[in-house]
Specification:
Helix content is 24%, strand content 19%. It is an alpha+beta fold and 325 residues long. The protein has a 5-stranded mixed sheet with strand order 1-2-6-3-7. Strands 9-10-8-11 form a 4-stranded antiparallel sheet, with helices on one face. Strand 4 (95-98) and strand 5 (101-104) form a beta hairpin.
C-alpha cells in the first residue's frame, strides 16, 4: 500500500504525502517552501520568510507575542540503499505502508522532519484548534549544521513558548538539547612508490547504518571503521578510501582501492579471515576483492595507524590522499 490518505489523522498524512512529492534535501528546500506558503495562503494564514529562507506561518490577526510556536525543519537527509539510482533534487519520495509502518522505497523517507512540518501545518489549519494561539516556525538546512536556525531572524522567535517537533518518541516531551559538532580533520599521509603487485578493491556493505543522532548509541557498526580494522597491518597498500553519503548518516558501506604487495589469493585469505571474525559480532554482508585495471599510488604502510584513528573519529566522508593527481 502506498496511499497515505487512509491513515489517521488524515489531515496530517495529507500534508505529509504532499511533502513527499516535493524534493527537499538540505539546501534545496525552495520548492517545499513555496508549496507550504501556497497551502497556508489558501487556508487564510499569514506566511513570512526571512533572509535565509526560514518560514513562519501565523493566523491572521493573531497576537505574535502570545503564540505557541510549533517548530520543525524543512530539509531531509538524502540517502538511498546501495545500488539505487535516485536524484533527491528532482525525484519524489515513494512512501510505502506495510503492517502499519510507513517507509520509503529504497530511500530515506523524510519523516525527519517532514512529519513535524505536517503536524504543525495541520494543527494551524484545524478548525477545532482555531481558538489556540498557534504558529509554525520552519527552518532550513538543519541536517547539515543548523544553518537556518543560526541565521534565524529574531522577529520569528516572537511568542510565549516553542515546541520542537523533531523527536522520534511519541507521547514524550523533552527539555534541553544535546547540541552538535561537525569536525573536519586533515592530514597528509606519507607515500611510497607502488610495489609490484595487482591493483585490488576491498569493499564492505550491507550494514544497518542509521542516523548518527538517534542511532549513535545502538552500537551499530561503521563501515569505515570495520574497513580500517580489516586492512590494517596487511600487505595491502591503500591509495583511496571511498564511501559515506551524508555527515549525519552512519556509513553502511565503504571501500578502498590500492595494491596487493603479495599474491592476491594470499591477501584475500587474510582479509576473509578478519572479516569472518568481525561477522561474529556485527553484520557485514560482504568484504569482496575485485580486480582493478590500474595500480594506484598508495599510502605508505607507516600511515596505517593514523589512518585508522582518523577513520574512527570522523568516518562519514570519502577519504582520498592529499596531493594525489
Amino acid at each position: 500500500m502506498s496511499d497515505l490518505s487512509e491513515l489517521e489523522p488524515r489531515a496530517v498524512w495529507r500534508v505529509f504525502d504532499g511533502i513527499c512529492k516535493i524534493p527537499h534535501p538540505s539546501g534545496k528546500e525552495e520548492k517545499l517552501v513555496a508549496a507550504l506558503c501556497a497551502e497556508a495562503e489558501r487556508s487564510g494564514l499569514l506566511c513570512r520568510r526571512d533572509a535565509c529562507g526560514n518560514l513562519r506561518i501565523d493566523r491572521k490577526g493573531g497576537d505574535f507575542d502570545r503564540a505557541v510556536l510549533l517548530q520543525a525543519h524543512l530539509d531531509m537527509v538524502p540517502s538511498c540503499v546501495e545500488g539505487k539510482n535516485f536524484d533527491f533534487e528532482t525525484q519524489s519520495i515513494s512512501p510505502v505502508v506495510e503492517n502499519g509502518i510507513v517507509r520509503a522505497d529504497g530511500t530515506t523517507l523524510g519523516g525527519d522532519d517532514g512529519m513535524g512540518v505536517a503536524l504543525a501545518l495541520a494543527a494551524l489549519e484545524a478548525p477545532e484548534l482555531s481558538d489556540l494561539p498557534l504558529a509554525a516556525l520552519f527552518t532550513r538546512e538543519e541536517e547539515t549544521g543548523m544553518i537556518g536556525a543560526q541565521a534565524l531572524d529574531d522577529e520569528f522567535l516572537r511568542g510565549a513558548a516553542m515546541v520542537n517537533l523533531d523527536s522520534g518518541c511519541d507521547e514524550v516531551f523533552q527539555t534541553g538539547c544535546a547540541g552538535g559538532v561537525r569536525s573536519r580533520i586533515f592530514f597528509e599521509p606519507e607515500s611510497v612508490p607502488a610495489p609490484e603487485g595487482e591493483g585490488v578493491s576491498i569493499r564492505i556493505d550491507g550494514l544497518a547504518g542509521g542516523h548518527s543522532g538517534i542511532d549513535i548509541g545502538k552500537g551499530r557498526a561503521n563501515a569505515f571503521v570495520l574497513l580500517a580494522k580489516i586492512v590494517k597491518n596487511t600487505a595491502f597498500y591503500p591509495a583511496e578510501f571511498f564511501g559515506g553519503k551524508a555527515d549525519n548518516v552512519i556509513p553502511s558501506s565503504a571501500g578502498c582501492r590500492g595494491v596487493a604487495g603479495v599474491p592476491v589469493d594470499a591477501l584475500r585469505s587474510v582479509i576473509a579471515a578478519r572479516a569472518d571474525r568481525l561477522r561474529k559480532t556485527m553484520t557485514v554482508d560482504s568484504a569482496q576483492m575485485l580486480s582493478m585495471p590500474e595500480i594506484l599510488f598508495p599510502f605508505s604502510y607507516e600511515s596505517g595507524e593514523r589512518t585508522e584513528a582518523m577513520m574512527t573519529v570522523a568516518a562519514h566522508e570519502s577519504l582520498t590522499p592529499m596531493g594525489e593527481s
